[in-house]
Design a protein that fits this description.
single chain; alpha/beta; 11-stranded mixed beta sheet; 14 helices; globular
């Protein structure tokens, strides 16, 4: 790996903003420009993963380094590590007390990062922080992903982990204690695209965690453009085909949840697989809606696979989402769910 910054570590920062970069130079530049926190509290660590646009990414990083006061460390991987491997690489490279992952196409909400830093400083005993975030839809409507009505602390147990599982998948703003994350380093789950969830589970089975009710980041839904960046590493090639969010890609990603739960169940004697399956069924709308654009016939075939191959039909909510998507379509369903969440103020408990 090549390090292209002149970084000298003096005092550890509170947060290492860790960015796995792959083929999105313009989006990465926009993310970097959105960082507006106290410079003494954060460092920025970027690992470029052998993408075709490596030189453009390097150029954007070097340009940002010339105009910023933030400490930046930029690395270029010698080979493509894939999503999970590059997250593990970033954990190893970071020096902050906490690691905060950010997708290279995501953004920070203006002025929110300093609020989040203040929250961390008040809760340094917590090893994992579930963040709130927002999504800005093409219509201009903003959807808030607030999981609870207020800041909430969690005990370290399998019930907590099962509830956190789905809510920890999106990497934007994912925040975890660096030293704890390093303890559980493994390549056993490479290719699942869920290394961050595995880290959360290992930490939250052992330590108290907390939900922070501050929408600190904006997740940019690049997947809606149907051009995913996964499937290029050796670990991912057998599961994912680059170029589109295909039915098989979606099914294999959903199956990966249970690969992770079974891995953890075998080591801890937990029942995460059963608990997570039920929770995913209750909140299966995004698993279903991602394939609605393919048309009703293809969608029904895909929904059948979720029901029969993964067991998502274990609650009534799965069928409610399925038929609502068939009858109303994705856009109307999205609007309805966003409206309900905005009225309630957070994701309803099912």
């Amino acid at each position: 790996m090549n390090e292209t910054s002149d970084f000298t570590m003096n005092e550890a920062k509170l947060i290492s903003i860790c960015i796995p970069a792959y083929n999105r130079p313009a989006e990465l530049s926009r993310l970097l420009d959105s960082i507006d926190a106290d410079v003494d509290s954060v460092e920025i660590v970027i690992a470029e993963d052998c993408s075709p646009k490596r030189e453009e990414i390097r150029h954007e990083v070097e340009k940002f380094m010339q105009s910023t006061r933030y400490e930046i460390r930029y690395f270029e991987n010698e080979k493509n590590l894939g999503f999970d491997g590059n997250l593990r690489n970033l954990v190893d490279r970071a020096a902050g007390t906490y690691i905060m992952f950010m997708g290279d196409d995501d953004l920070f909400v203006p002025s929110a990062l300093d609020e989040f830093i203040a929250f961390l400083q008040e809760h340094t005993d917590k090893k994992y922080i579930l963040r709130s975030y927002l999504v800005r839809h093409e219509s201009g409507q903003i959807e808030y992903f607030r999981y609870l009505p207020a800041t909430t602390e969690f005990l370290p147990d399998s019930e907590t982990v099962a509830w956190l599982f789905k809510r920890s998948v999106t990497i934007c703003g994912f925040t975890i204690d660096r030293e704890e994350a390093r303890k559980y380093s493994t390549s056993d789950l490479d290719g699942t695209l869920l290394y961050q969830v595995y880290l959360m589970a290992q930490v939250c089975l052992r330590h108290p965690s907390i939900y922070c009710d501050i929408p600190v980041v904006e997740m940019v839904q690049t997947f809606r453009k149907d051009t995913p960046m996964f499937g290029n590493s050796e670990a991912e090639k057998s599961r994912y085909t680059p170029g589109s969010v295909s039915e098989d890609n979606s099914i294999n990603f959903s199956k990966a949840y249970f690969e992770v739960t079974q891995y953890l169940d075998a080591r801890h004697g937990t029942d995460l697989t059963r608990r997570v399956r039920e929770d995913l069924s209750k909140y299966s709308y995004p698993f279903l809606s991602i394939q609605r654009k393919r048309g009703i016939k293809a969608f029904l075939h895909y929904a059948g696979r979720l029901e029969n191959e993964l067991g998502f039909g274990c609650t009534k909510y799965f069928f409610l989402y399925k038929w609502a998507l068939v009858i109303l379509g994705e856009k109307w369903c999205d609007r309805t769910i966003t409206f309900i969440k905005n009225i309630v103020g957070h994701t309803p408990k099912l």
